[in-house]
User: Which sequence fits this backbone?
């Protein structure tokens, strides 16, 4: 084998091992987040949810919905922790540039995590969360056999109609805003334009809702905290309290 072929084979082998290592790390990170989110949801859920259902079909539907919600929460938590993870990994690499055991914290891993988070967040936002909601509310089409598959068919049809409705609204909104005639005639650039546009619109709505609800949440938090905590007595006048106590004692003694 020629030296050039050996070098190319070594490079391909190294890239293969790096790809396998990144896949293993991403799988372990997501599995950890999924387990953590499962414990969080099962801790805060009501006792009658998911476990108190006597019907086997409803129990299976609730377990599937629980898995979808747990997956979505894991993706959201990963999106929140991805920026701190990127900053910390960069600082660790800059602090220990020659350490062999931390070289897996490279830019390729962070870039792959960003791509996975973007893909799964769009999947959860467009498909998984609406599917979980409609799946728990579905009962199957009239005249069809009862079962899980009947609910899956009904949920798929409702989700397809909802997707077409949302895409039509986005297409009309983009046609109104944009002056390009091509954007009004086709949905050819769906993946590169319409899906990020929809994701940005929903993210903007979430940010506006957060800005609206944050003041009320902070006021409620301080109100509840003020009721639970005992006010400090460091600034109280002890002489004044002592004189008041002596006056109360004198009044009580006179009454006796």
Assistant:
């Amino acid at each position: 084998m020629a030296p050039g072929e050996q070098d190319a084979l070594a490079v391909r082998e190294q890239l293969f091992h790096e790809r396998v290592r990144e896949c293993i790390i991403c799988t372990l990170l997501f599995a950890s987040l999924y387990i953590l989110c499962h414990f969080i949801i099962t801790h805060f859920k009501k006792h009658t949810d998911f476990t108190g259902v006597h019907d086997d079909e409803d129990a299976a539907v609730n377990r599937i919905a629980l898995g979808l919600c747990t997956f979505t929460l894991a993706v959201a938590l990963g999106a929140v922790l991805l920026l701190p993870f990127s900053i910390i990994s960069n600082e660790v690499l800059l602090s220990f540039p020659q350490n062999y055991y931390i070289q897996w914290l490279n830019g390729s891993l962070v870039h792959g995590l960003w791509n996975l988070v973007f893909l799964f967040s769009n999947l959860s936002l467009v498909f998984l969360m609406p599917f979980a909601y409609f799946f728990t509310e579905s009962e199957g089409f009239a005249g069809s056999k009862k079962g899980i598959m009947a609910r899956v068919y009904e949920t798929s049809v409702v989700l397809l109609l909802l997707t077409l409705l949302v895409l039509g609204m986005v297409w009309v909104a983009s046609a109104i805003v944009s002056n390009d005639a091509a954007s009004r005639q086709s949905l050819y650039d769906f993946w590169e334009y319409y899906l990020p546009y929809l994701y940005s619109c929903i993210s903007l709505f979430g940010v506006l809702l957060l800005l609206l609800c944050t003041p009320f949440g902070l006021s409620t938090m301080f109100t509840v905290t003020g009721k639970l905590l005992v006010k400090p007595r460091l600034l109280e006048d002890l002489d004044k309290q002592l004189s008041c106590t002596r006056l109360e004692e004198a009044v009580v003694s006179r009454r006796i």
Observations:
- DSSP finds six helices and no strands in the chain.
- Helices lie at 3-44, 56-95, 107-137, 148-177, 190-228, 238-255.
